[in-house]
Amino acid sequence: MNSFVPDAVDHKGNHADRTKTGGWLSAIQILGIEICERFATMAIIVNLVTYLVGTMHLPSASASNFASTSGGTAYLLSLFGGIVADSFLGRYWMIAIAATIHAGGTCLLAISTSFPNLRPPPCNPTSSNKCVEANSLQMGIFTMALYLTNIGVGGIKSSVAGLGTDQFDQNDDKEKAQMAHFFNRFYFVISSGTLLAVTVLVYLQDQVGRSWAYGICSASMTLALLVFLLGTKRYRYKQRLGTPIVQILQVIVAAVKKRKVANPSNDSALYEDLSQESRIYHTDKFHCLDKAAIITSKDSGIPNPWKLCTVTKVEKVKMLVKLLPIWATTIIFWTIHTQLAGFSVQQAATMDRSIGKFQIPPASLYAFFVVSIMTTLAIYDRLIMPLMKKYKRSQGLTNLQKVGLGLLFSILGMTAAALVEKRRLSVVRADRGTMTRSATLPISAFFLLPQFILVGIGEAFILSGELAFFTNNAPKGMKAIATGLYLTTTSFGMYLSTILVTIIRNVTGRNGGHDWLSPRINDGRLDYFYWFLALLSLINLGFYIVCAIRFRPNSTENSPKMNGAVVDTPPKEETV
Known about the structure:
Layout: E1 4-9, E2 15-17, H1 23-46, H2 48-54, H3 60-89, H4 91-114, H5 136-165, H6 173-207, H7 210-230, H8 244-257, E3 278-279, H9 287-290, H10 311-321, H11 324-329, H12 331-341, H13 343-349, E4 351-352, E5 354-355, E6 358-359, H14 366-391, H15 399-432, E7 441-444, H16 449-473, H17 479-508, H18 526-550, E8 566-567
Parallel strand pairs: 3-8, 4-7
Antiparallel strand pairs: 1-2, 5-6
Helix pairs in contact: 1-5, 1-6, 1-7, 2-3, 3-4, 3-5, 3-17, 4-5, 4-7, 6-7, 6-14, 12-15, 12-16, 12-17, 14-16, 15-16, 15-18, 16-17
């Protein structure tokens, strides 16, 4: 067996020796970055609203919007990080730089939460419990630290999974099997880091101090970065072949320039580079993009890729466009997910969280969400899938079916959340009628578990279906863009949450109306907002089912052989 990996190089640019580079040792050093990123990021996200409300004295809706926008920006930067990594830096340098920025951001967070001058004074209970909101300087420093961390998150997420899989040779059967295990362990690492964050680190934030907790985040990322750098000589690197975003822009620009040119009646009149080893045959979808491949009198000589594109390049863009309806209909799930780290944590902060003499931090209820994801994935992998293989002769649920189930469980989760909030508010009204009003309502926070568990089950199916759907149905050379699309659904879901909260506040609070999302959660009608999200998700599920039924991957049936060229098509698995 050849000791060199055919499509990888070592740190010096020479052919990578499989006996000296790659494998599990290298992959584990890379995974260390991911577990520390997840450890820090989730500890910040799930407990961010309680800090903004309790310490910085922001209104609850404003705090929720701030947290949603911050998280959305981090995931949106993942797409930008992927483009920069593929075009300029490479995955290794993107991870190294992003991890350094992440460690610096969490260090600044520790500093901003440690100095009394960088946060407003505590509320004065003798002045009708009025609180002084954080000023622009205090919020500015905190925001700068948080967004530095977000830049680090975006850079790490864009490249860590890709560099991890680069350590295994897909042309070697043994290493290909190891790479399949890498993906399973990658998701386990993500869940483990999250679980550790929402239990241990959240407890430290609430009981010891946020500056200590954020300092631990910075120290752990610094340590992981050192371990990562120690593996430099052992890593395998894939050479950059340009960036797919340029190919997409070339097709769009060429199609726009030729928008007035009539499409030819014969597909063979479209331009194709016959020297390519791998080509995609023409399809009858999105004819407006075909104009980029029309040969005109101005296209003489060497083709200008910004004026004339091959059919293969056009079809790659079409394959991405076909993913957009599914992409759009999964955004609402992440809007619902955002509520668990926002309003659901605020609910928990008002409820009885005691187990004996131990007080559970409000954000630690998120642990039940993480456990439900891990449990669902384990049950599906070890029980449901084997049963389906045995009795239905299938490989399990398709990716589209998994996503549909995820959307359904999110609706059930919001329904449960609305019912629990209605009950909590009834306790609030009853508590106000007593002579001894308590800061903690006499209702157990464990009533919130159904919404965490149901949405967690939904996310388990979304996690295992959505990313696989995008990567399986994306053309070769554009898998990174497909991964970026997957990550931006989370980002846009968080942004949509911010928009909805703003609209609901403006509409329901108009003309002295009862603001559903009042600055104090006990004065609002959060249950109405949850019902609204459940209804919106139900309508969205209907649209998703239509899009999923109509979706068809490129088929190799009746396709032209094109002089023996290999036809690049995704697997024919996606059905509802």
